[in-house]
Amino acid sequence: MQTKKCQVLVIGAGPGGYVAAIRAGQLGLSTIIV
């Protein structure tokens, strides 16, 4: 198992989670979506 660090962790890739992850990435935040 690996440890990963990020500024934003989005759980869920539904309509809201998908948009939140894209926007966080556009703002330059380190983002992981699960």
Textual characterization of the structure:
The protein is an alpha+beta fold. It has one domain. It contains one helix and two strands, in the order E-H-E. It has a two-stranded parallel sheet with strand order 1-2. Helix 1 (15-26) links the parallel strand 1 and strand 2 (31-33). The chain is flat. The two termini are 15 Å apart.
What number is the mean pLDDT? Answer: 95
Total beta strands: 2
Number of domains: 1
Number of helices: 1
Radius of gyration: 10 Å
Assign an overall shape. Answer: flat
Uncertain runs with pLDDT below 50, 5 residues or more? none
The helix-and-strand class reads alpha+beta
Distance between the first and last residues' Cα: 15 Å
Portion in beta strands:
15-25%
Helix-strand string: EHE
Largest sheet: 2 strands, parallel
Write out the strand line-up for the largest beta sheet, numbering strands in chain order.
1-2
Helix content: 25-40%
Overview features:
34 residues, 35% helix, two-stranded parallel ribbon, alpha+beta, flat
At a glance:
The protein has 34 residues and is of the alpha+beta class.
Question: What does the secondary structure layout of this molecule look like, with pairings?
Answer:
Blueprint (H helix, E strand, L loop, with lengths): L7 E3 L4 H12 L4 E3 L1
Parallel strand pairs: 1-2
